[in-house]
Amino acid sequence: MYRNRPDTTPLESSFFKLPDTLLLVFGPDWSLRMISEAWSATLGYPLDELRQRSFLDLLHEDDRDAMVERLATLNSDTPTLRFSTRCRRQDGSYLGVVWNVSYDPDNGLNYASAHETAINLSGNDAQLPDRFIDRLTGLPNRSLFLDRLEHTLRRSERRKDLQFAVLYCGIDRFKVVNHSLGHRMGDLLLMSVADVLRGIIRPTDMAARLAGDEFALLLEDIRDVSATLLVLNRIQEKLVLPFSLDGHEVFTTVSFGIVVSSPAHHSADAMLRDANISMMRAKAQGGGSYVVFNQEMHDLAVRRLELELDLRHALEREEFQAYYQPIVSLADRTLSGFEALVRWRHPTKGLISPTEFIPVAEEIGFIVPLGRWMLREACRQAHEWQQLSTGAAPLTVSVNLSARQLLHPDLIADVAAALADTGLPPTLLKLEITESAMMANAEQAIALLERLREMKIRLLLDDFGTGYSSLSYLHRLPIDTLKVDRSFIMHLHEKQDARHFVETIVHLAHKLGRDVICEGVELEEQAAILTAMGAEYCQGFLYSRPVAANEAEMLILTGLD
Ligand code: C2E
Ligand code: MG
Ligand code: MG
Fold first, then answer.
1. In the β-sheet with 254-260, what is the strand arrangement from edge to edge?
2. Which residue's CA is the closest to the ligand 1 atom numbered 2?
3. Which of 65, 348, 386, 492 is packed most tightly, with the most Cβ within 10 A?
4. Rg (alpha carbons) of the chain, rounded to whole number
5. Protein residue with its CA nearest to atom 23 in ligand 1
């Protein structure tokens, strides 16, 4: 099975001094043509003795066949290979080593550099090396990457001039490839990206597959962040061309998060985490680009994490409060109802805005119990207020539903229970769904909303104008009211295009038999324009900010003025 390659003359003066680096060169007969001094200290044999050995002698005997097989696949199309084996030490113990072998067809020589995995293996443990290699791509895996990074960190503590960088790489929209073209294609894409990364880096750097569609690079001995950007540019250039996968041409882009070593980073875990945060930022910006980590990002991420932890206890600690903002009927400027808006009184951070914590709650699924609580609280309150109300029509209450709540299987049952337990008539409850939540899963949302409507609950499309609902969809949506977003109302009195937009929406809504609420009315001028346009309702600081229940009660009793 050993490959027969033309023999060549041994390298002249091959046994030169290369401290610190585990390098060797071997010929087609496995004889060592060069071996660096570092091997002697690493394995414990005198250098002269090592020079007499063959390459295969250095390996654990159980690893040799696999190594020979892998090396036979080296050719001009696959000029480098990376894999792990165990190496025998003089004292009989074994050392885990990751090899990077390049084949030079002109001389028939193999150039191998190696990195210790820093994990000392017992001689019988045949399974261990594979634990550090990702099976699909052959790249080192997360454990090995962290291990190597930890070493680099320790080394840089001793050598202050040593700068290095971690690049976190995520394939953009990988799930789309996996879903639309199948898992095999997804695997091929991962292997292709792995090849690009492997091909770009220097032998002293490391590319690893962390998990799923996420990779990482460790670039050692860099000058500054600009050196990292050069590497990144080289990767991006390779990715401009499509991959040819099984006859399909697949284009892909990759997002990068970059962390350059600094005294602030003490652990490999923290460095990788911060690189990950930056990569997610880059993805959020649309993909195909990079974000360099900075302290502000770190602080934001820490705050977000703290919010996430505190959120989980905030319900039982009764830290949430429902606030209410009046909804005003434009024709006679009377109170028509309230929108319930959640407030979080954090014990140490003070009042936290829902725009900050609702997205976090949504992401971790906490929005479901929180939303259930709000729904109940708002229904209970609205029912209580019915007794106070002196207006002609009973007061309504609007409750916001998030995307995740909308798709939750218990939604209908939760709504029915809230109404039944509090005694609020369903006709007085309005549910607000944002345009983007609705469109994220339109068909399923429509089916659900139809059921809610059968229960006689009224439905509002919130933040209208900011999402992507096409007009053709609009007439199919089982909603009663369009709620025009504040961003259009804001400029109503000074910009003609804002006025035209709102006017068009009001006409369209009326043509479709829907009514309109305009959010964010702050000026009398805006209210006057909306009244003239024939919009039914408005809501905004002009009348009242969102207020606590007792203040809302005052508004019911005394009226809006
Ligand atoms: P939204 O549902 O569109 O609520 C309207 C937001 O606009 C409220 O912000 C309100 O205080 C603000 N607003 C009303 N009138 C004016 C005005 O004249 N000028 C200005 N500048 N702002 C005005 P808030 O209470 O901070 O809520 C922000 C968003 O958080 C809400 O937008 C909603 O999407 C979400 N949210 C709030 N409470 C809940 C909840 O209980 N459940 C869910 N799922 N989301 C909620
Ligand atoms: Mg709303
Ligand atoms: Mg809104």
1. 206-211, 214-219, 165-171, 254-260, 290-292
2. 400
3. 492
4. 33
5. 520
**Helices within 205-249 (DSSP H only):** 225-240
- Name the residue at shortest CA distance from atom 27 of ligand 1: 354
> Which three-class secondary structure state does DSSP give residue 45?
coil
- In our burial notation (b when 16+ CB lie closer than 10 A, e otherwise), range 290-301 reads bbbbeeebbeeb
Q: Average the pLDDT over each of 5-9, 328-332, 403-407, 421-425 and give the range with the smallest value.
A: 5-9
pLDDT digits (tens, 9 = 90+) for 133-176: 888 888 899 988 998 898 889 888 877 778 899 999 999 989 88
User: Which two structure tokens, joined as six digits, stand for 528?
Assistant: 């006057």
Ligand 1, CB cutoff 6 Å, lining residues: 325, 341-342, 353-355, 358, 371, 374, 400-402, 432, 462-463, 486, 519-522, 539-541, 546
Q: Locate the ligand 1 atom nearest the alpha carbon of residue 353 and give its number.
A: 26
**Residue pair 481/398 in contact by the 8 Å Cβ criterion:** no
Kindly list the structural domains of the chain, giving each domain's residue range(s) and its CATH number in brackets, ordered by start. 7-123 (3.30.450.20), 134-293 (3.30.70.270), 319-558 (3.20.20.450)
CA of 393 to the centre of ligand 2 (A): 22
Cα(216)–Cα(139) distance, integer angstroms: 10
Ligand 1, atom 20: closest residue by C-alpha? 520
Q: Which of 459, 519, 544 to mutate to test the pocket of ligand 1 (most atoms within 8 A of CB)?
A: 519
Q: How many Å lie between the centroid of ligand 1 and the Cα of residue 342?
A: 8
The CA-based angle 173-178-184, given to 5 degrees, is 140
Q: Which atom of ligand 1 is nearest to the CA of 361?
A: 44
For 124, the 3-state DSSP assignment is: coil
| Pairwise CA distance, residues 108 & 105, whole Å | 5
Mutate to test the pocket of ligand 1, among 311, 338, 344, 358 (most ligand atoms within 8 A of CB): 358
**Among 485, 434, 479, 427, CA closest to 457:** 427
C-alpha span between 542 and 553 (Å, rounded): 18
Task: Give the ligand at the shortest distance from the Cα of 370.
Answer: 1
Q: How far apart are CA 533 and CA 228, in angstroms?
A: 57
Give the CB-side neighbour count of residue 532, counting CA atoms within 13 A. 10
Strand 458-464 to 481-484 pairing: parallel
Residue 354 alpha carbon to ligand 1 centre in Å: 7
Contact call for residues 536 and 484 (beta carbons, < 8 A): no
Write the pLDDT tens digit of every residue in 25-43. Answer: 888 889 998 888 888 888 9
Residue 187 DSSP code: H
259 forms beta bridges with 166
